[in-house]
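> forwarded from #structure-qc
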């Protein structure tokens, strides 16, 4: 099976702070540059797990875009990345606090130029993974990908991506636009926002009334699976947390590979949680 991933490609600049931020002064930090972008992260993880994956997106006409394209190809990702003349490749700056929590500053750059014609037609019976960032502007390419995948009989997974742009997009509009999804992959905050439920378990149940499968990542609390009126919880794997950047993307990739190959829900959650635990132990998403 081929998995078509549609989403952002970016450079991650990860600054791991040695202590609390010091406004107006200096604070030592470990700063690293890594490949990033939610779509690219998922595609790279899928390829590492042996999946035939095609990534559709945009990069700038710059050294960063060329470098990221080469990096993904070396990882086994087939790419359909349009180079956008005059645009810079997306850049994400992550400020990582002690304990692994992060704040992200996003310049999506060339990713904002994605067009419907940049997305290859999905193969019948394949799978589409859509990063929610694709819907946050402009949305036409993401919507076209969802329609084409549904018409081709593909299964579809969607990651809501981030609470702030999700709220700005409009909850009801987002739920309507993603109604064709087979698997929804929110984190706890996104699940709460999409439903208005304070308890992630209640939110998972509510979302499972709209989508066939809902897998909610809970960070150190593990993950939930809601489907067919059932709710399952699995604990997180032990991990020494350095940076949580990319953990959700790793969770999505691990879970999807297991689910697409027929694994039981508990095994699918464990696969996602295991991959996420491996990512948080070092700076950067990949």
């Amino acid at each position: 099976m081929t998995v078509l991933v549609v989403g952002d490609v970016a450079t991650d600049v990860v600054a791991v702070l040695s202590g609390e931020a010091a406004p107006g002064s200096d604070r030592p930090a470990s700063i690293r540059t890594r490949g990033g972008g939610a779509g690219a992260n998922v595609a790279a993880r899928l390829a590492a797990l042996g999946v035939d994956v095609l990534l559709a997106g945009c990069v700038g006409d710059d050294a960063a875009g060329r470098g990221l394209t080469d990096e993904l190809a070396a990882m086994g990702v087939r790419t359909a990345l349009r180079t956008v003349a005059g645009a810079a490749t997306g850049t994400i700056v992550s400020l990582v606090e002690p304990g692994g929590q992060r704040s992200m500053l996003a310049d999506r750059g060339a990713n904002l130029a994605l067009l419907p014609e940049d997305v290859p037609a999905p193969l019948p019976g394949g799978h589409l993974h859509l990063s929610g960032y694709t819907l946050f502007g402009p949305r036409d390419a993401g919507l076209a990908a969802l329609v084409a995948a549904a018409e081709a009989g593909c299964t579809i997974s969607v990651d809501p991506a981030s609470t702030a742009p999700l709220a700005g997009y409009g909850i009801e509009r987002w739920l309507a636009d993603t109604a064709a999804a087979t698997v929804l992959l929110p984190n706890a905050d996104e699940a709460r926002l999409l439903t208005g439920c304070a308890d992630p378990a209640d939110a998972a149940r509510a979302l499972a009334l709209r989508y066939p499968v809902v897998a909610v990542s809970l960070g150190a609390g593990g993950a939930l699976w809601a489907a067919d009126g059932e709710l399952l919880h699995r604990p997180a794997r032990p991990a020494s947390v350095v940076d949580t950047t990319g953990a959700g993307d790793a969770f999505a990739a691990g879970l999807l590979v297991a689910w697409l190959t027929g694994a039981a829900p508990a095994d699918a959650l464990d696969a996602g949680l295991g991959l996420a635990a491996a990512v948080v132990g070092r700076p950067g998403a990949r």
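QC bot note: The mean pLDDT is 93. The two ends are 24 Å apart (CA to CA).
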